[in-house]
Amino acid sequence: MKIFQRGFLYFNFCVFVFGCNIDKPKLFELQNLDSIGINFSNDLTFSNDFNVYKYRNYYNGGGVSLGDINNDGLVDIYLTANQKQNRLFLNQGNFSFKDITKSSGVKGEKAWATGVTMVDINSDGFLDIYVCNSGDIKGDNKQNELFINNGDLTFTERAKEYGLDDRGFSTHATFFDYDKDGDLDAYILNNSYQAIGSFDLRRNERPKRDSLGGDKLMENIDGKFYDASEKAGIYGSVIGFGLGVSVGDVNGDNWEDIFISNDFFERDYLYINQKNGTFKEELTNQMKSISGASMGADMADLNNDGFNDIFVTEMLPSNYQRLKTVTTFEDWNKYQYVLKNGYHHQFTRNMLHLNNGNDTFSEIGRWSGVEASDWSWGALFFDMDNDGFKDLFIANGIYQDLTNQDYLQYVASEEVIKSVISNNQVDYKRLVDIIPSNKVPNHSYRNTGDLGFEAFVNSGLNIPSFSNGSAYGDLDNDGDLDLVVNNVNTPLFVFKNQAESLKNNFIKIKLKGTSKNLNSLGAKIEIKTALTQIFHEVQPVRGFQSSMDLISTIGVGKSEKIDLKIIWPSGKTKIINGLAVNSLYEFEEANADFIEEKQSEKKLIFKKDIQDYFPIHKENNFVDFHSDRLNYHMLSTQGPKISIADLNGDGKNDIVFPGAKGFASQILFSQGDKWISNEKNNELLEKNNESEHIESAILDVDNDGDLDIYMTSGGVETSIYSTSLYDVLLLNDGSGVFSRSDQNLPEDNHKISSESVSYADIDSDGDFDLFIGERSKIGEYGLPGSGYLLVNDGLGNFKNLTDSLAPNFKNLGMITDSAFFDFDDDDDKDLIVVGEFMGINFFENNNGYFSLVDTKWKQKTGWWNTIDIFDIDGDGLKDIIIGNHGTNSRFKASLEEPILCYYNDFDGNGRGEGVLAFTAENNKEYPYALRHNLIDQMKSLKKKFPNYEAFKNADLTKIFSKKLLKDSYVCSVNTLSTTALKNNGNFNFTKIELPKQVQFSPVYSITHSDIDNDGDLDILMGGNLFNVKPEVGIYDASYGLFIENTSQGLKYHPNGKGFNISGEIRSLVVDKNQVWVGRNRDTLSRFTFKK
Q1: What pTM does this model have?
Q2: Which residues pair with 792 in a beta bridge?
Q3: In terms of DSSP H, where are the helices of 760-901?
């Protein structure tokens, strides 16, 4: 549990209150506990000596374990309680249970039970029960307990004898054979003893071992467990705040790996099994961002591609009112501070890490729609409806919500502090009694089969509660998975699944392994149906503090026959084809064989060059958010957009590499295998290093037969009066030595922050003219910039003729890219311009005069970034792809519910601000900013909204006057998807479907080439954006995209056929059989491919 944390996301009126569709039958039916013979509630009783202020994990709740303890074919239930006895309920069939806690001897004698696991620890054929304990702060009564099954419905506690009586604040434990010696080892997940406020984040204590309270990997040696953590490479430090442990094969090598989710400030861990008894912690190399304060987790294959994906819960509310009352986020400075001190990119939201199958993950929780579920504990992936896809259940709720912002402000007041302290004693009861207590609905999501999830409105599981541990299993042997949920101060939930009414089929598999791993933990099950394949791993410990039934119940949809493959941890394999469904099958490892499988080689097209002489793009330390508190994305990190051409006439292409403010741009000449610069050019470029150069264009401006360079000067780091905002024109002397033109571009006294430059001979006079796009008004985010049409006199002298030839360019928008092309086939160059809060604007060229074409795409406003024009479908007409923000984002937009930006001087201080808002289902507009963020920018609002409760329902009309809103400049966004347009001629376009992976991150560069030599043009894309406010989280899911153009359409390749690169890609340029990649704050990179 975390006391001071943060959270965020959607406005939600009915989806997770789940008042909609109430007449439809529910998939799960909540059972009456009295009628099924279960009486259990994890009730907590206040004590001034032990409460949520004394013990931070006070409301973390208990766990659930399901398993057949007496081998009668019925799944039994074990429940942990924090202050009361643990309970064991024997399944008597027909959803009838008997409490055998007392007679079985498993009530537990230690303090504060947490997680529980059923495992056959001694391989006698009977499930034992391992209970983790915690909570006993002052004493020594929290050793974990191991109840050995005597085979007669009685158990004997023997944890010390087995070496498993751990004395840490244990959360959970899992058992698996990490060293493949045939027996089960253990991982004990612990939660640090030390108070959160006592840590100094400047001291990274991760490598420092805490032998008592740290996590432990316990090696099984002849039936007794010994701590092997240090030699195996497992962290066991005082900053480990483990709340979730997941074991499974992450990289497909048939060795089990470990994922640990840590609460508070410590990052999660991803341990990759090195197959030699050790692990390598790889999280920061494979996951670019993670949850800020991780809680429960689950590992499963969500898209049936054979690779385990990982889901982690956090505390981001899905309900708008709760978001506005219980949420705060780290600011930029704190975020940078923790990064600097060895932590990671950690953000307040659930994370869905999609396994790319190449030792990388892409975080797609926002795209999949599962990033916000409130105070979430356990996450479980299981097929609720037997359609062959794993759905998602999230247990939610905190009995007393210590993150309520009004409560925190109240108890921090001097008056309250004085009232609760008397004679140096704190009246904790008074403090605790006033903490708000609000039940939060549990969340369930249906897997749509395409990596997306939709709210499972009629699941019957979404009951407001204070839920914690949960477990699934087929309690009534009807072929679907039932669910048991442990709650704080609320009776247990037992849900009967009624999926049989859907007429989907299933298969049940029970495995028998070797003598020391009888239940085959770690085995893999692969099922092939006529329509899909399904992957499952036998690993019962999942979610939060709980373990599942060991029999695998797997939905197969409408399939009536399946092919089955089982791989045991030893490597033995069993293949059975044509199995009938709706039956239980038992398979023994003894009857399996070692089958040598041919590993299919992944044919790669691209090869990355490893060179140490490529330049590195650097950025200055400017932080946009210090001057523009209400913006979410930095505008100062847009480069470098490189250009390539032969600048010195030697027949080899050279590179123009734009530099950020304070760092000179570079002109690099190809010389053999190396790239060199010219001293005179370096001196010239150093003189211009105060400009933020973003984009470059290479063209012959003066018709002297050599190529010159135009560089835009943009960013927001500069005063609007600075001459460094003038664009730079570099004239070539013919040998690759450049001098700066004395022109102030785009025009004298027009110092603009520009980004886009495009060129064409617009007036057919034999020289190149220019379009320059203004990216932003410095200090006035939300106001539109202008486009500039610069006409060439043939000698490289440019005149701004925008007013006479292109008046529509004025106040066009926040322009990011442009391109000239003859869209109407009349032998002159028309123009396309896109930008932030802009539509797709086409301008028709009529004898050098540009007029805006009225197309439906002009209404498709987005956060557009880049344009690429080429013939996608081979019909001879050039099509268009426009890179956009993407849909893996907190920001959502549609025609009905657009994003809005209101610009005005709202507080009357002489300086305007842009306020971002979204349109909710009730058609009202609400600010994205939290109360304290708005007040930081506009102090006068504090009087209007004295507390968070007053602010939680305030739409823009309640925050600002109607006159202020009416007088504001308003721009909007209604589409965030990167979009491809098929050219039907004469400015008529229709949409081309792109692979969904394109939308996982912002796209900043697109290029094309016939990569695979099949006669059509393939596509390369790149993007990502890291310099954003922590509350929205970095956009990092892309590793570059190779999209193959096939006869069946555009095909995405998960491994990019070798085109795989991390970072913020800003430019992609193809030069023959080479792809150059320009990245912000990173090394220029090159890939080669066979031509």
Answers
A1: 0.96
A2: 798
A3: 802-805
